[in-house]
Write a structure and sequence with these properties.
Elements: E1 2-11, E2 17-25, E3 30-36, H1 37-51, H2 72-91, H3 101-106, H4 119-129, H5 137-164, H6 169-198, H7 200-203, H8 211-265, H9 293-363
Antiparallel strand pairs: 1-2, 2-3
Helix pairs in contact: 5-6, 5-8, 6-8, 8-9
Length: 364
């Protein structure tokens, strides 16, 4: 968090006093607020009381024989001292003062922040992991960027699980857990993004988005949701395949033990244990190489669903293009009518000008 007091201003309500403008720059947004000098003194008292020890620096002392409203030099020196006061607390290695209710209330920061973490990261977590709809246009884009990062992380973990092989069970479990965690976070964020778009006309206020931008963001949400579902289906298919492989391995082991026992009892005549076959191999791809028959079937169904969704999106795009074409045609018709009217007016005016010229010629 970057904090500063760039300017001061003279306020008259309820009586003349100097107001200090505090500028806060957070990871997702920036805002300003104004405080009186007495507010800083009250903050210092509350920080000392709630943290148990005074902050590393103190605000400038109060003066009784001079007023900052009539002394610009005093106001400027106080501004610099108060800026140093806030910056020192914000960047100090001891976080106790930053975790107090007084500090968060003074700067209008969220109350649901975790201890032993910076205010910037805490606020970022509060805004991006909350299940509440996201109705801030800038935060919406930042959250969508985080969703893309989570989906990429899930894809990396799925690839890592695939590369771990059947011999590294622990690595497979860790990669699956990491991928599932990323997909769950992405799902919650996608839901918050979608709910925010539903309320875009109600709660986005002065920054209300245009219809085209809202439609573009809905397409982004639909694409992210489709990608998440595809990754989740692939992960579930890989987990199911691993379970089937483990079951087959146990069965083969049991069959092998039974055959060995039977051969021993039959005087050492060796028989061949039946080995269960895997799935029927065909033309392999990177997505099907590690799947069994049921996994390939599930993947094919998922691909068909994705293709249906792509067709629906394409149909919607075609409909929008058709609407745009019809609107352009209507505008052209109106423009042609206006041009026709203009041509008639020009002809009429030209006729009047010719009459005037003839009259002027007769007069001259």
């Amino acid at each position: 968090m970057e904090i500063s007091i760039p300017t001061t201003q003279l306020a008259t309500d309820p009586k003349p006093h100097t107001a200090y403008t505090i500028s806060l720059r957070l990871p997702l947004r920036s805002f300003t607020l104004t405080k009186r000098f007495s507010d800083f003194l009250a903050l210092h008292t509350l920080l000392t009381s709630q943290a148990g020890v005074p902050p590393p620096v103190s605000p400038p002392p109060k003066t009784y024989f001079s007023s900052s409203t009539h002394n610009p030099e005093l106001a400027e020196s106080r501004r610099q001292a108060l800026e140093t006061y806030l910056q020192t607390i914000s960047t100090h290695e001891d976080w106790r003062w930053r975790e107090t209710l007084a500090w968060r209330a003074f700067l209008n920061l969220p109350s649901a922040v975790s201890q032993k973490s910076s205010i910037a990261s805490s606020l970022y977590t509060t805004l991006t992991t909350s299940s509440a709809p996201i109705t801030d246009p800038v935060v919406w884009l930042d959250c969508h960027r985080d969703v893309k990062g989570l989906l990429q992380e899930a894809r990396i973990q799925i690839t890592r699980r695939d590369q771990a092989g059947g011999g590294n069970v622990q690595g497979q479990h860790e990669a699956s857990a990491a991928a599932k965690k990323a997909l769950v976070k992405a799902g919650a964020s996608i839901q918050a993004l979608a709910e925010g778009l539903k309320r875009s006309g109600e709660e986005w206020g002065a920054e209300r988005l245009g219809e085209g931008e809202v439609r573009r963001r809905r397409d982004l949400v639909a694409s992210a949701r489709k990608e998440r579902e595809s990754l989740e289906t692939l992960l579930n298919a890989m987990v199911a395949k691993a379970s089937v492989d483990a079951s087959l391995a146990d069965k083969d082991a049991l069959v092998g033990l039974s055959a060995s026992a039977g051969n021993t009892s039959n005087g050492g005549v060796h028989g061949k244990a039946h080995v269960s076959s895997g799935r029927v191999l065909g033309k392999e791809t990177a997505r099907t190489r590690e799947l069994d028959n049921s996994g390939v079937l599930a993947l094919q169904k998922q691909m068909m669903v994705e293709q249906d969704e792509d067709v629906s999106v394409l149909a919607a795009a075609v409909r929008r293009q058709r609407e745009l074409g019809e609107e352009i045609n209507r505008q052209l018709v109106e423009q042609n009518e206006m041009l026709g009217m203009l041509d008639e007016d020009v002809t009429r005016v030209k006729g009047k000008v010719d009459v005037v010229r003839k009259r002027v010629g007769k007069i001259s």
